[in-house]
Amino acid sequence: MSRSIASAMGPGGESLVKELGFTALIGLALTVPLISYETIDDVGGLQLQGRWAATAFIVAALVMGRLGIILLRTPGRETWVAAGGALAAVVGLLDLFRDTVAGVLGLERWPAISPSYTLAFLLGVGGAVLAIRAAVQISRRNSAISKAERDARMESLGEQVRKLVRVFAAVAVLFALTLPFMPFSNRYVMDVGTLIVTYVMLGWGLNIIVGYAGLLDLGYVAFYAVGAYSYALGAQYLGVSFWLALPFAGLLAASFGLILGFPVLRLRGDYFAIVTLGFGEIIRIILINWYDVTNGPDGISGIPRPDFFGLATMTRRGSDGLPAFHEYFGLEYSSEHRVIFLYYLIVAMAALVAVFTVRIRRLPIGRAWEALREDDIACASLGINRTTVKLAAFGISAAWGGFAGAFFATRQGFISPESFTFIESAIILAIVVMGGMGSLVGIAIAAALLIGLPEVFRDLAEYRMVAFGAGLVMIMIWRPRGLLSHREPSVLLADRSPPGRPVPAKAVAAGEVAQ
Amino acid sequence: MMLQVEGVHTFYGAIEALKGVDLHVDEGEIVALIGANGAGKSTLLMTICGVAKARRGRITFAGSEITAERTDDIVRRGVACSPEGRRIFPRMTVLENLRMGALTADPERYDENLAAVFELFPRLKERAQQRGGTLSGGEQQMLAIGRALMSEPTLLLLDEPSLGLAPLVVKQIFEAIRRINAQRRMTVLLVEQNAHHALRLAHRGYVLVTGQITMTGTGQELLENPEVKAAYLEGGHA
């Protein structure tokens, strides 16, 4: 029978069958031990139950996908692949949201093809990838433009994207500011929003070390922890208020940054990264073991909430001579006030970081950071004191981490070393790298995706991390340098005539303007 | 005397790269240091600007000793170094690169210095907004020299400005160096493998062989010296 299919496929058909058979075999070999059996609790103890539908589904999907890839090798068959891929994507999507679909259509049950949500998701993604690849091939073949033309087009496209980014940033800021008053806004949305903005701030803080100075810091969470604990301990032992502790937390984190910076700045690349990783762990382990002060793994609870700038408390009843927030403003009491207040607090702190970062990029120290990232030796030969410049990056970046930490402590009301594990550093670093190092907007988008997506996919229950991982992989494939890797120049000539045309001498004499 | 190097020994680990080098550069001179690959030319330059440290010997610049000083302090004294391989900042624009060079200079004179660099290399003005990495090799070399000039140096150290450039571009670069020297009385110490061009441009020259100075004289003398001819000039350069 394989003969007849092979001859039907025309020349090369035999190798096609061989390849598909091989794919099926590998798929089977991987699926059987991992997926084909599940244990169920039965009367007589644990029983093995076969999941052959899932196995068959996986192998079939793999073979179809492989077939699509093979068909794409020879031009002329893209349309079929595109159609098939799109069909698979639609089926996957419908299966994924089967309950919603059934509800909309008024059906009792959607007749899902995929045996599980994960498989539906994979089917959808796989189909979409194939369809997109086919579409790209078709459009490439149809547009017989030269490479230079395409480059020019890409350039103008890039220009448009850049403009779009500015608009997008403005919309995002507006959205962030009005979020509490949106009709869909509730306690849950505010909590997720606060969490995302916290990570935006952490990302922007780490961006100074990683994105600008080009030093890979794997232990950023240490500064976050220092900030959080300095407020928590200050409140517990000395009774300091949040507003008093905030600058102190930043300063303390900055000095920890300098303490770490001094010994490690002579190291480079991987070695540097490993030491920062160790530093992050050291801080966490100290917090666990210094039981007398930090209460060890039990953490610190009852961390006081911030008051409203010393004017009112954010509790139901006023205390220490301060009126409660709703009394002060003559409002009805609502527990949402505090949530919204905390949200605006972190938005303001993040905005501070953003403004600071944009400004400092145009100062000599900011330029020196970027130069340092590009070429260490050239920097030295230009008279840059590398130690000072790197330490400044470390200190400032750490300070932002410390501020965010103090906020975290006051928002949660409880902190323990559990909150400051390596995975936090990794997430913050992933936000910076995926956003496109140095790009504030990119980092904000990445933070929204990385923190928001797992929330959006909460319906998928335990499979949401699979969706999350797939998202990361896709970004790595299509945007390997980050979502927005464009870098705005920090100096421009006064006259903005396009390159290639001579600039009038007057413009040169007038020097540069900060753009 | 602007720069004096006396008995300088520099080591890379156990390897002695410079074995007691003596050299001096007077104000307003172009001095060429020629030698084969691995003779220690770049090491000498790196030692002068403090990237490598001399284990023995003394380096004085404008009357004060700089042997053990940090690079950034040496640059602040007025020594500008254009390192081997140009080392411009590829992701930064031409203008930003030049701006980086002006870090140690008086900001009051930034506009003036920028105009002077653009006057010397009009190409840089045309490409001011372009990224450094997109420039041609010759333009990158211009940028490297321009960037060094932005720090208002009194002594310009150039390491192999002709490296990897087409003959015509090499000519342009050397012409620019000549103009910098003639118009601004800039003192230049030039390290080159391209002995022919370097010696024709220089007032004086030194020949460095395996970490030691073996010969010195005016550019013309060295050009005509049979040993120099045999070792560095034969083989294509007319």
Automatic annotation (TrEMBL), chain A:
<feature type="transmembrane region" description="Helical">
    <location>
        <begin position="164"/>
        <end position="182"/>
    </location>
</feature>
<dbReference type="GO" id="GO:0005886">
    <property type="term" value="C:plasma membrane"/>
</dbReference>
<keyword id="KW-0812">Transmembrane</keyword>
<feature type="transmembrane region" description="Helical">
    <location>
        <begin position="244"/>
        <end position="264"/>
    </location>
</feature>
<feature type="transmembrane region" description="Helical">
    <location>
        <begin position="117"/>
        <end position="136"/>
    </location>
</feature>
<feature type="region of interest" description="Disordered">
    <location>
        <begin position="495"/>
        <end position="515"/>
    </location>
</feature>
<dbReference type="InterPro" id="IPR043428">
    <property type="entry name" value="LivM-like"/>
</dbReference>
<feature type="transmembrane region" description="Helical">
    <location>
        <begin position="79"/>
        <end position="97"/>
    </location>
</feature>
<feature type="transmembrane region" description="Helical">
    <location>
        <begin position="422"/>
        <end position="451"/>
    </location>
</feature>
<dbReference type="InterPro" id="IPR001851">
    <property type="entry name" value="ABC_transp_permease"/>
</dbReference>
<dbReference type="Pfam" id="PF02653">
    <property type="entry name" value="BPD_transp_2"/>
</dbReference>
<protein>
    <recommendedName>
        <fullName>Branched-chain amino acid ABC transporter permease</fullName>
    </recommendedName>
</protein>
<feature type="transmembrane region" description="Helical">
    <location>
        <begin position="20"/>
        <end position="40"/>
    </location>
</feature>
<keyword id="KW-1133">Transmembrane helix</keyword>
<dbReference type="GO" id="GO:0015658">
    <property type="term" value="F:branched-chain amino acid transmembrane transporter activity"/>
</dbReference>
<feature type="transmembrane region" description="Helical">
    <location>
        <begin position="188"/>
        <end position="206"/>
    </location>
</feature>
<feature type="transmembrane region" description="Helical">
    <location>
        <begin position="218"/>
        <end position="238"/>
    </location>
</feature>
<keyword id="KW-1003">Cell membrane</keyword>
<feature type="transmembrane region" description="Helical">
    <location>
        <begin position="391"/>
        <end position="410"/>
    </location>
</feature>
<feature type="transmembrane region" description="Helical">
    <location>
        <begin position="271"/>
        <end position="291"/>
    </location>
</feature>
<feature type="transmembrane region" description="Helical">
    <location>
        <begin position="463"/>
        <end position="480"/>
    </location>
</feature>
<keyword id="KW-0472">Membrane</keyword>
<feature type="transmembrane region" description="Helical">
    <location>
        <begin position="340"/>
        <end position="358"/>
    </location>
</feature>
<feature type="transmembrane region" description="Helical">
    <location>
        <begin position="52"/>
        <end position="72"/>
    </location>
</feature>
